[in-house]
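Q: Protein A?
A:
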Amino acid sequence: MDNDTKPKGKEVSRRDFIKGFGGGALGAAVAPKLLTPGALSVQTGSGEVAVYSKKQVSLTVNGKPVSLVVNANETLLEVLRDRLNLTGAKKVCDRGECGACTVLLDGKPVYACMFLAIRAHGSQITTIEGLASEANLHPVQQAFIDKDGYQCGFCTPGVIMTTAAFLSRNPDPTRHQIQHALSGNLCRCGNYQKIFDAVTEAARKVRGA
């Protein structure tokens, strides 16, 4: 059939099709609806999902209750360092590779630079500042002093926090288990042998041996 004999009728362009579709089922599915200041709801096929730009969160940090409003993209590390002035956790790689920012969240080590503060709502956070008791250093801290388990010190808080969590689960580790447990913490000074010696000594102290 040549161009002169094509049936005449209203042509629908790709733009018209997309506009029509967007205003119908798709528009109804994803159009946001204001819920509360800083919060949006997006309707999806499986239900309504809350999307926040800001949210108030409540945490327990080193045994003290904390309540503050955080941005949706604000990391736990930023809150600890910039808002709570707890600067022991270091901002070094800022992409979850070196472990210098490690803190304990409900007893488990996490990279604070990669953990959104909004996700920490209701959690117990322990930083290097909260590890010691009022009278004494934590056994891991003391062991790192005794065995010279640090050089420049940037990695040290994260290594100590990872070690404290590890020894709470395994107080009598082998050298290989220690190396594996600390594989997510990098020491740019290369002081690994003394770090491993310090962890071995910390394990002895934790066991009371």
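Q: Protein B?
A:
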Amino acid sequence: MNLWKYEQELYKQKIEYIGGVDEVGRGPLIGPVVACCCVLPKDFVLEGLTDSKKLSEKKRNLFYDYIKEHCICYGIGIVSPEKIDEVNIYEATKLAMIEAIEEVKKQIPLEYILIDAMPLDLEIPSTSIIKGDSKSISIAAASVLAKVTRDQMMYELDKQYPQYGYASHKGYPTKKHLEAIQKYGLIDGYRKTYRPVREILEMETCK
């Protein structure tokens, strides 16, 4: 698949600064949702780049360093679990994406946005692409930066609370994770509106 298809069509229209936008962290029970907007140069080359979920962790980390070094610029948007509970994960995801885009706009005159699946109401022209992280080089790059950024947060949390296993499951509701929160309880940062967390809170209230 030609990952440059969308970008090349825009280059033909004399559009140069194209931001690819993706997010990570909609499913976890704990921590923020993280989005990235990444702008790549026309001569960017990274063999094997695709949706970050399809890459090994070792390769993601290597790609993360390479993308940061060779991109024109990037921005990260982070929305807290408290905000997720307040507005819901769909709206929080949009907020994180907009924050990432705004960070890029501070650095360059952004001209166009390619977004993974999520339609956004923006002043800048944009296209929402289903499975965009495997169809657009810019979105794929953003997916790697967002994923590794959030994973790093989970590693830091794991250092503080190793009994929960955040380094392995990254906050997603795996069997191991659910057993840990049943055993050790909830720490700050859990999304209280998510069903497994809500059920534990309800059980504690009934005691």
